Amino acid sequence: MGSVSLKIGDGTARFKRATLCSSAVNILMLLSVVTTNLFALYAFTYSPNDNKIDHILHHSPHKNISLISEQVSLIIREIDSSQKKLAQMEKELLGYETIDLSRPNIAAELKLFLQHHQLPLGKDSRTGITEMVASVGHTCEKSTDLLSQYMTYKISGPCPDDWSLAQKLILRGCEPLPRRRCFAKSIPKVGLSPFPISLWKPISDKIVSWSGLGCKNFNCLNTKKLSRDCSDCFNLVNGTESQKFVKARSKNDFLIDDVLALGYGGIRIGFDIGGGSGTFAARMAEKNVTVITNTLNIDAPFSEFIAARGLFPLFLSLDHRFPFYDNVFDLVHVGSGLDVGGKPEKLDFLMFDLDRIMRPGGLFWLDNFYCANDEKKKALTRLIEKFGYKKLKWVVGEKVDGSGSGKSEVYLSAVLQKPARV
Ligand SMILES: *[C@@H]1O[C@H](CO)[C@@H](O)[C@H](O)[C@H]1NC(C)=O
Ligand SMILES: *[C@@H]1O[C@H](CO)[C@@H](O)[C@H](O)[C@H]1NC(C)=O
Ligand SMILES: *[C@@H]1O[C@H](CO)[C@@H](O)[C@H](O)[C@H]1NC(C)=O
């Protein structure tokens, strides 16, 4: 069934699938090209009947072979001239019209990764799919040079030490990234403490990667304000980090025990956005609540630090749809990380996705969200009202700017409950 016959004059040339192209897709494309170009010259038939072909080839040996071979070479020339057209059609069929795989500087591994793989038994009855497709962010096309750099490596060898290149691609919307067939740089994690001691044990500078970062140790990081939710946040010993969520410094700071009480004991799993060094998840772990901390490694090795504390870091940008099913989390916690900037719709997309993964009756804890101006506060309030959440706590407070300018800043903290929508 997998063969194709071209009837030429009074002879027949037979092309086996494997001799021309490796995939059925290519054969189909090839056929259409050949048909278009040679229709006027040759009759074109598709014959699944192998007996008929055998009959022609084996029982008519007196036909003019040289005529046939002459015409076959004509076809081959036609095929060659159609190569460009084929590549274009294949690209469109792949669905990667925007990633020009025929460009000369595209890494071979990238092409290989993006190829579709037909299921050996055809259509899968459970899922309805006929092929396996690798997923890659469509905006990767805008950074094909970086992407090709990322996909250039020795197969089965060590990967280049390029996590920051990967993160750069992710931040440009090239997410998900293609997979790679090389071994990522491994860093021995010596001196990890057992759980739950690990939650508050200082992490050695030696067990994280500092490549691509300005600071080369945690002391250096602790002198910097990395974000509104992380200044001195790697200092687990004598800074303010250890007081977060258990000791209020302002009326905007809610305590973990108080918020958990609002959930009537039903809070077991949670999701923290922009969770800094993972302290929220650590405090929740002490309450037997499992929290996944969403973080990238912007200016600091957040992911490794959180993992070293025995907590779950999720390395994902906020532009990516969260890899969780609907209605699964009892709690979502977010601070100033919710400030995604851009058009109001950008925040809409994020909020709707957060709402999706939270179960009805679950809690949305907005923690010290910085309202740069009154308009921002109003927009966020309107958005929250759109979701129909029940306001269990709602505090708008002012704090004096930490940088010492004396200016006061407006913060919003709230605990909201997702309604059961019908
Ligand atoms: C076979 O084809 C060639 C080239 O077209 C021609 O010169 C030759 O006479 C043909 N022979 C027969 C037996 O038809
Ligand atoms: C906090 O601890 C670090 C080392 O753990 C030390 O260098 C620093 O002086 C301490 N700071 C205070 C205020 O105790
Ligand atoms: C957490 O779970 C452990 C083991 O089940 C239990 O001993 C401990 O009391 C729990 N802690 C809290 C705060 O519920």
UniProtKB/TrEMBL annotation:
Q: Does the keyword Transmembrane helix apply?
A: yes
Question: Which GO biological process categories is it annotated with?
Answer: methylation
Q: Which UniProt keywords apply?
A: Coiled coil, Glycoprotein, Membrane, Methyltransferase, Signal-anchor, Transferase, Transmembrane, Transmembrane helix
Family listed? Belongs to the methyltransferase superfamily.
Keyword Transmembrane helix attached: yes
Native organism is Trema orientale (Charcoal tree)
Provide the topology term for how it sits in the membrane. Single-pass membrane protein; Single-pass type II membrane protein
Quick one: a GO cellular component term? endomembrane system
Transmembrane domains' residue ranges: 24-44
Domain of life of the organism in this record? Eukaryota
Name-wise, this protein is: S-adenosyl-L-methionine-dependent methyltransferases superfamily protein
Point out the coiled-coil segments of this chain.
72-99
In the record, what terms sit under GO molecular function?
A: methyltransferase activity
> Matching Pfam families, A to Z?
Methyltransf_29 (PF03141)
What is the organism lineage in this UniProt record? Eukaryota, Viridiplantae, Streptophyta, Embryophyta, Tracheophyta
Give compartment(s).
Endomembrane system; Membrane
